[in-house]
Amino acid sequence: MDVAWQYAYQSITLARTTPPGPRVRLGRAVGPHLRDNPDRDPRPQHECIAMDIFQQLIRIEPGGRGPREITRQVAGVVSASGMGTGLCHCFCRHTSASLTITENADPTVLQDLEGHMARSVPDGDPQYAHAMEGPDDMSAHIRSVLTGAGLSVPFSDGRLALGTWQGIFLWEHRTGRHEREVVITCLGR
């Protein structure tokens, strides 16, 4: 491994923590082209900042198919992190549920989204080869791929920087009731 890139690799060491944890040094190295210039210092030039990492798993109780708002739970994790400014990343640990940000003021938005998804990706399509767990199995996987397993939201002054009408939703794509897990990771200061 080139010395310059080895330094960059060693500088970016992330520790997995649950409580507010160790400071993490992030580096920026100037690449391996330095060795081609004998007049330059061969050591990488870098700037470092310290960041905290806080991670927590939240469990969402079964609720059946459709979007379910989890903004308060996510905001609670940001608050528990003790950080003022940073980025909150949410990751859904399932292949038949997803995360999205949409309007949280008018419930008909959620009804329309679920209706559109039902028309676009119907259950029990005979062209689906994968149906091990029933007619909603493959359609749930497709819906999850279309909407995504993760999202990131900045936070300032310890509060999520969502717009006035925005909320974070776990979108259950199965017709049955399943407990879901979402990993919330906060990076910041």
TrEMBL record:
Q: Which family does it belong to?
A: Belongs to the UPF0047 family.
What NCBIfam families does its record include?
TIGR00149_YjbQ
Pfam families per the record? Answer: YjbQ
Species the sequence originates in: Ectothiorhodospira mobilis
State the PANTHER family in the record. Answer: UNCHARACTERIZED PROTEIN YJBQ-RELATED, UPF0047 PROTEIN C4A8.02C
- Protein name, as recorded: Secondary thiamine-phosphate synthase enzyme
Q: Where is the signal peptide?
A: none
Show the stretches that span the lipid bilayer.
none
